[in-house]
Amino acid sequence: MKRLLFFLFSLTSYAQQAELWLTKADQSVLFQKQTEKLAFGPMTGTLPSIYVDDTKRFQSMDGFGYTLTGGSATLINGLKPSEKAALLKELFATDANNIGVSYLRISVGASDLSDHVFTYNDLSAGQTDPKLSRFSLAEEQKDLIPVLKQILAINPNLKILGSPWTPPSWMKTNNNSKGGSLKPEFYDAYARYLVKYVQEMKKQGIQIDALTVQNEPLNPDNNPSLLMPQDEQADFIKKSLGPAFKTAKLSTKIIIYDHNADRPDYPISILNDPDARKYIDGSAFHLYGGGIDALRDVHEAHPDKNLYFTEQWLGAPANFGGDLQWHVKNLLIGAPRNWSKTVLEWNLAADPNQGPHTDGGCTACLGAVTIGQTITRNPAYYIIAHAAKFVRPGSVRIASNVTMSLPNVAFKTPDGHTVMIILNESDKPMTFNIRAKNRQITPTLSGKTVATFIW
To answer: What are its GO cellular component terms (predicted)?
Structure first.
């Protein structure tokens, strides 16, 4: 009996220890597991305290990851087979030695980080093809589809979000890949185009979990791009896209907006339309304008609809410390605290010159990894790793307060663990309590440090 009691006590004590992973802004520590575990003990002292309450639960998480742009796929697919296999395992495998990215965004056709502009139905000037008889995924068969198949073999549960940058030019008012609007007479044809995309990708063994209607619909200056104000997006969804998805019996979610947090009125106005909202799962955001708390405004206006954070770039050359802190505070912590189910960085990979990109596309977008003579891991790699490895899909955000210079977010995982991400954004070390279930640990975090605690 004494041995049994000692064994049970040992199990209890072990369960009350927290594992800790750190990244420091000065790069002296980069996503490194700490050897010393912190043991929970009685609540004492008067230090600043973060209280974690797993009885108060909020949204479930779909995952953390990147955009696998066409250029990213080209670079990855160009690696030697052994190098490609090792990189993809490191990024997507869910075992103890890898970071387990759980969510990817891909472009429907080219994005501005493809090496050239294309759609799946490109025609000569003056031609149209409303029946889509010339629809083809041939361009994606070169790099994107092979890379996705290899990723899904590593992590079959990975979720994929598709985002179009432009319809085929013949559907647009300016007959150009850049700017212009979708012609109303081609609403139905474009809806069928997107249905066909989901169906044809499924034939390749690639399930598109969700589709945003248009990347950055208020930015017609990118190449490719499309201007789609909210009234046009609402009309397209309720008149064409929603009914087409329903007729085709697609389970793929329809997500609106996919642009900056400075215009929460855009998704709210569409969700106010009962004929459009019935087809819509939720809204997606970037943060090149506005504040991350605008997501909460959309949630409060339509609490039955989901929120997703789908894009934020880091510019080259990297400012490692500043980028790390801003992205952790606003995205990794801020987006989930404001109801987002995903956090995605833009983009997965680039070459040492921040290519490839289209003529007029982003020339300074730094990948999570740089693929050149060697592979370099950049700030976005570590930012996402701090969450993706531990906050697995199906984890639920739980309550935690913010105290001092310690922004944080906490989750309960499907296997019952608690994960807490904390940033010490001050210059000085901070000693504080983390309190949960009437027990506490008292860590000290050095200044400008990101920490993930798991217990």
So the answer is: membrane
Q: For the whole prediction, is pTM greater than 0.90?
A: yes
**What are 121-134's pLDDT values in tens digits?**
999 999 999 999 99
Q: 30 and 88 share a domain?
A: no
Q: What letter does residue 300 receive in the DSSP assignment?
A: H
Q: Are residues 46 and 73 in the same domain?
A: no
Domain that holds residue 128: 62-393
236 within a domain of the structure (yes/no): yes
The Cα-based distances of 96 to 99, 141, 209, 235 in angstroms read 8, 32, 26, 47
Cα(112)–Cα(222) distance, rounded to whole angstroms?
A: 7
**Residue 339, domain CATH:** 3.20.20.80
The string of DSSP letters for 72-94 reads: HHHHHHTS-HHHHHHHHHHHH--
Identify residue 18 by its one-letter amino acid code: A
DSSP-based three-state secondary structure for 258:
strand
Statement: residue 3 has pLDDT above 60: no
* Alpha helices by DSSP H, 47-143: 70-77, 81-92, 138-142
Q: What is the largest CA-CA distance in the chain?
A: 87
DSSP 174: T
Q: How many domains does the chain have?
A: 2
Closest CA to 389 of 173, 175, 159, 102: 102
| 184, 310: one domain | yes
Q: Which of 90, 139, 216, 425 is catalytic?
A: 216
| Cα distances (Å, whole numbers) of residue 414 to 20, 36, 279, 331, 436 | 19, 25, 29, 22, 18
Is 216 designated active site? yes
Q: Per the residue annotation, which of 90, 140, 232, 311 is the catalytic one?
A: 311
Q: Is 70 exceeded by the pLDDT of residue 419?
A: yes
